[in-house]
Design brief:
45% of the residues lie in helices and 18% in strands. The chain is of the alpha/beta class. Strand 3, helix 2 and strand 4 (69-75) form a beta-alpha-beta unit. Bound molecules: nicotinamide-adenine-dinucleotide (NAD) and glycine. The site of glycine has 6 residues, from loops.
């Protein structure tokens, strides 16, 4: 393989499904980044109407040196389009171009494009190779890594999908230059998450560098993306299909998914809902006697400094009941009992049930 300039490589060890996460500036246009992928004639870039004009052409040019044909599929942009109808646009294009089972899909975009492209790759002809090329901070630190793919259902977030690992993840930090500030904050939510669940030293580092991260300082961003990917690779390497440990990556997500579904997908960004959800999950951990008030406050302050909401939205007049109803369709729920990721000591997370009355109190405390 030709030398790739200025790249960090984080391995993800999953036996025959192992792959590398490449992190660096200006990777998209580097020929060597794409050189030794699976053999095949065709590449299909799946992207959306916002990202296509920014990055599809440089990627297409780089891939053209490696593949005989390169097609591009442009999806509508937005969480509200993460559904069957949009997924079908990918299959329409693959079949329309007579793509064979050696075709490699390239997911160029944020988590929405990545999750849908991964699901399309998992199911087209029962599985074709795919590469994640995440262009949002959130996708670079979380969604592109670990092989969770899927779409939303009107009754629940990410309810239809598959575990299907990419063959490579290419995080080009230069693509973050065009990201709207609100999306940078959304990505910071998933970065902050890794501190309380796995690495308190990283939480200290994020606190010390939060202003630099918000300002997109390249050195700070490189460290944050790399450390986040290392932690995620460590978790996924031990529990690829979420038999247990991997659920800790959903800290804040049970409340967050209820916010997203309750408000309607796309109203709050996923990262905003997760940021606020972490504050709610921290309060719950405190109510269960697991987390001290000082750490709850520390986390709340950090989430706010990242530019994220810390008060939950009201979803209905019977607000707590509505949250509880939505949280019962969470994937972690067992027989209708909601399971929460809580912090049981700093840097360590666990799964717990909680009485509805306690959860309702937390919702009342945390909602606007
Ligand atoms: P997104 O994919 O909607 O992207 C956010 C916005 O930024 C979109 O409008 C997009 O077009 C735009 N955009 C993307 N790259 C850009 C760039 N470089 N410059 C300018 N604009 C750009 O949202 P997201 O936050 O990336 O991902 C959220 C999704 O990821 C949710 O659906 C969530 O469920 C999913 N997710 C999945 C996993 C997983 O493990 N698979 C983990 C976390 C989140
Ligand atoms: N974002 C949660 C997971 O990948 O498991």
């Amino acid at each position: 393989m030709q030398q790739i300039s200025q790249v960090a490589e984080v391995p993800i060890a999953l036996g025959e499904r192992s792959y590398s996460i490449l992190i660096g500036h200006g990777l998209l246009g580097q020929e060597a980044v794409w050189q030794d992928l699976r053999p095949g004639n065709a590449a299909v870039i799946v992207t959306n109407s916002t990202v296509a004009p920014l990055y599809a052409e440089p990627l297409r040019q780089a891939l053209q040196r490696r593949y005989k044909v390169v097609h591009t599929v442009v999806l509508p942009d937005g969480e509200q389009h993460k559904n069957w109808q949009t997924l079908n646009l990918i299959f329409d294009a693959l079949l329309g171009h007579q793509c064979d089972r050696k075709t490699t899909l390239f997911a160029l975009g944020g988590g929405v494009v990545g999750d849908m492209t991964g699901f399309a790759a998992a199911s087209y002809m029962r599985g074709v190779p795919f590469v994640q090329v995440p262009t949002t901070l959130l996708a670079q630190v979380d969604s592109s890594v670990g092989g969770k793919t899927g779409i939303n259902h009107p009754l629940g977030k990410n309810m239809v999908g598959a575990f299907y690992q990419p063959h490579r993840v290419v995080c080009d930090l230069a693509t973050l230059d065009t990201l709207p500030p609100r999306e940078v904050s959304a990505g910071l939510a998933e970065i902050i998450k890794y501190g309380p669940i796995a690495d308190m030293a990283f939480l200290d580092w994020i606190e010390a560098n939060i202003d630099a991260l918000v300002a997109r300082d390249p050195v700070a961003l490189t460290h944050a993306v790399r450390r986040s990917c290392e932690i995620k690779a460590w978790v996924v390497g031990q529990d690829e299909r979420e038999a247990g440990l991997r659920a800790i990556l959903n800290f804040g997500h049970t409340f967050g998914h209820a916010i997203e579904a309750g408000l309607g997908y796309g109203e709050w960004l996923h990262g905003e809902a997760v940021g606020c959800g972490m504050v709610m999950a921290a309060h719950l951990s405190q109510r269960l006697g697991l987390m001290d008030a000082a750490l709850v406050q520390r986390l709340t302050t950090l989430v706010a400094r990242a530019g994220l909401p810390v008060r939950g939205p009201r979803l209905a007049t019977n607000n707590a009941e509505r949250y509880l109803e939505l949280m019962r369709v969470d994937k972690k729920a067992e027989g209708g009992d909601i399971r929460f990721v809580v912090i049981d000591s700093p840097g360590r997370a666990a799964m717990r049930g909680a009485p509805d009355a306690v959860v309702a109190e937390v919702i009342d405390t945390c909602c606007a």
